[in-house]
Structure formats: structure tokens, C-alpha cells
Amino acid sequence: MKRLLNGILTLAVVAAVLGQQTLTADEKPQLKEVKAKSITLKVPMDWKEKPPSNRLRVAEFDIPLAEGDSFVEFYIAAFGGGGGGVKANVDRWIAQFQADGREMKVYEGNSEQGPYVLVDIKGTYNRPIGPPIQMKTAPVEEARMLGVIVTVPDEGNYFLKLTGGQKTLDGLADDIRTSIGADLATEKETELADE
Q1: CA Rg, the chain, in Å?
Q2: Per-residue pLDDT averaged across 65-72, rounded?
Q3: Which domains does the chain have, with CATH numbers?
């Protein structure tokens, strides 16, 4: 009887350990491939593709919000050619955050799609509201932006812009890098020179 109880206890422990391993594996996000013009992204399954809201965007997604955050937006734009250049676009993204309390870092590296620049900005975001021609904004505190410019050989720049509350974006920094197939061994913090 004692031997039987020890055997049952051992099986229960093994099952619990295996169950924990299964749960851990399930927690890793499952990815799907999404085509955005000439690039292929690998994004989490719960990022839902939707029709682009304007003609400059080649892809747009709904992404689940973290509790307490009011918005998240992710889109990819491509204009052909340089699209205004890397530094000019990074500077424009930085200017969308109020200078007071703004934190930012800029990285560069290589990805499966081509070389990239990633800008990570935190602070108060001047979120556009209404038609773009009106140039109206509303301040959103505790916001974050992960903006990526991927230079695709023989095609030009793709602009991936992920903006939202910090709680939501804190969990997405790895996902945005994974989406382009970033080679983290090549990524380094940088300061962009004038173009």
C-alpha cells in the first residue's frame, strides 16, 4: 500500500511539473505571418488586421489594451523611396511628444526585412484627433511610442508606428522587434546624424 501511495504521489508530482511546462509553453505568443506590401511580418495571433484607415497605410491592426490604457494604434506606411528620410521621420515622431518629461532612445540594427532604426519614446503624447488637415491634438499622459523604419533594399522605407499607453506598450517592445525579424545581436543604441 505504501509503495502504491508513493507511486501515485510521484505521478502527481510529474503531472504537475509537466502541466507547468505546458502552461509556460502556452504563454509564449503564437505568431502569424502577415504581408504588408513587400514585407512579411510575424505578429502575435491576437493582433487583428483591419482595413487601413487611409491610403498611405499598407496595414493596420487592432491590438488588445492593457487595463487602464485608453488607446493603442499600430500601422505600417510605405511611400516609395525614402519617405522623407530616416532622421526627418524620427525627429517628427519625437516632436509628437511634449518635451517636458520626455524620455527617448534610438537604436539601429539589422532584420530579415533590411536594416532598421527603432525609436522608443515615453512621455505625454500629442495624439492627433479629427481629420489630419485640422492638425488638432489632445495630450495623453503616460504614453509610449515604438517607431520602426525598415529600409527594404531596392524599394525604400517602411514605417511601423506603434503608439499607446505605457502599460500596453511595455509588453510589446519584444513583439515589434519580432515582427520584423530583428537580429538583436546587431542592435545598438545610436544617435542619428543629419541626412
Answers
A1: 21
A2: 93
A3: 29-189 (3.40.1000.10)
Segment 142-160, tens digit of pLDDT: 999 999 999 998 888 999 9
Q: Which residue carries 541626412 as its cell? A: 195
Distance of CA 145 to the CA centre of its chain: 9
* 29 three-class SS: coil
Residue in the block written with cell 503624447: 125
- Read out DSSP for 71-82? -EEEEEEE-SBT
**Which of 56, 55, 49 lies closest to 33 in space, CA to CA?**
49
How far is 147 from 124, CA to CA, in rounded Å?
A: 16
Closest CA to 89 of 62, 109, 118: 118
Greatest Cα pair distance, the chain, in angstroms, is 81
Within 52-182, residue ranges assigned H as helices are 86-95, 166-170, 173-180
